[in-house]
Backbone:
């Protein structure tokens, strides 16, 4: 699929503004998959390794109730709804967020099963972007990190290069997690690159393009 085709597909799927969620709708076309095994697992590359879990799948914690007071998974110390939950639930807040805030929100999205946000915050030129959005979202749900507790996303560095529409943001971070059954702690480091895909795509928000060492 060409870069132009990917941008066209995302423009079509996001043509209708979304006020209260990041739901993306499109017709299913073919059973595509973007998942593969990783060593170590990478939360932001959308190719999590599926694991058999004893932990019940939890639904989205969007909204109010308990989510308003529980600590945010990113480790900021703030409540979820005052931190990453704002980006998950309000497209305007997401559009105005820094690249660092988007990194934290994507990390928390895996913990909170905010699949729409994971898809919506991915750049259409990301190598794992799938035009069959509904199949992609189902694949993410099946491969979320239910067997891990996501405990902290530590930002090490944030830099911006270029100007205007050509600007690129790079965020270096350490993602930490704890295995549910063994309580073994693990972590990995990544430098993620973000670019904007135009004002008509997620309000011009920073979108995850690729990750590296």
Residues:
């Amino acid at each position: 699929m060409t870069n132009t085709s990917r941008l066209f597909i995302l423009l079509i799927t996001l043509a209708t503004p979304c006020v209260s969620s990041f739901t993306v709708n499109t017709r299913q076309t073919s059973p595509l998959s973007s998942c593969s095994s990783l060593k170590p697992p990478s939360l932001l590359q959308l190719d999590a390794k599926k694991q058999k879990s004893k932990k019940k799948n939890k639904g989205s914690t969007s909204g109010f109730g308990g989510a308003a007071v529980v600590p945010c998974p990113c480790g900021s110390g703030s409540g979820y709804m005052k931190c990453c939950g704002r980006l998950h639930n309000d497209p305007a807040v997401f559009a105005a967020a820094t690249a660092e805030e988007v990194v934290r929100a994507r990390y928390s999205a895996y913990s909170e099963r905010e699949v729409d946000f994971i898809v919506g915050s991915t750049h259409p030129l990301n190598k794992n972007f799938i035009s069959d959005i509904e199949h992609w979202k189902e694949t993410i749900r099946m491969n979320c990190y239910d067997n891990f507790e996501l405990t902290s996303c530590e930002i090490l560095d944030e830099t911006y290069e270029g100007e205007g529409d050509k600007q690129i943001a790079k965020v270096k971070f350490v993602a930490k997690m704890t295995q549910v059954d063994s309580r073994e702690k693990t972590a990995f480091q990544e430098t993620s690159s973000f670019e904007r895909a135009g004002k008509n795509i997620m309000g011009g928000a920073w979108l995850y393009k690729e990750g590296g060492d």
